[in-house]
Design brief:
By secondary structure, the chain is mainly alpha-helical. It has one domain: Protein Binding, DinI Protein, Chain A (2-Layer Sandwich). It has five helices and three strands, in the order αβαααββα. It has a three-stranded parallel β-sheet, with helices on one face. α3 (40-77) packs antiparallel against α4 and α4 crosses α5. The longest helix has 55 residues, at 83-137. It starts with a helix and ends with a helix.
């Protein structure tokens, strides 16, 4: 009777240990930023953002030159103008500077929104590819390698790039 109990106890321990071992999670890692930068759509998006940024910068520089020219003109004519006229001109220049500052803020907001709009589908495609490869290979967790200190698990980069055909 004791041998049967011992045998049942040993069997229960074996089953418990093997089920614990099979319940261990499979973990992989990938550097998501590196993956996104390797995607062709990313280069296209970056080129578009850069082009828009250069356009905004050129408009900003033109406006800045306009203000500088007006200041030079007003300074050269200041002696011939009345105090009231010089005050009006100074207020006009200050208004132009404030408008330029607001334009610069709007420009930055527009660039950030454009970047978000262009990169969102790229990030979503990367996430879907990572999920598909992880699921196909039986991984339950995929960590971003950009934040890992030790990475002994499988690196999914090559597999995800192959899935995306890049």
């Amino acid at each position: 009777m004791k041998t049967i109990k011992s045998l049942l106890f040993a069997t229960a321990l074996f089953i418990g240990a093997s089920s614990f071992m099979s319940a261990q999670s499979k973990i992989a890692h990938i550097d998501k930023q590196e993956l996104i930068k390797a995607m062709p759509a990313y280069a296209t998006a970056q080129a578009e953002i850069e082009k828009l940024g250069k356009t905004y910068q050129a408009q900003f520089q033109d406006s800045l030159k306009e203000i500088e020219n007006k200041v030079k003109q007003y300074n050269s004519e200041a002696a011939a103008q009345t105090e009231d006229e010089n005050l009006k001109r100074m207020q006009e220049v200050e208004g132009m500077k404030q408008a330029l500052s607001q334009y610069q803020q709007q420009m930055n907001q527009d660039l950030n929104k454009k970047e978000y709009d262009l990169l969102k589908p790229i990030v979503e495609d990367a996430d879907k590819a990572i999920q598909a490869v992880a699921k196909a290979q039986g991984f339950q967790y995929v960590l971003d390698a950009g934040m890992l200190i030790v990475a002994d698990g499988k690196d999914l980069m090559a597999d995800v790039k192959a899935h995306l055909k890049i």
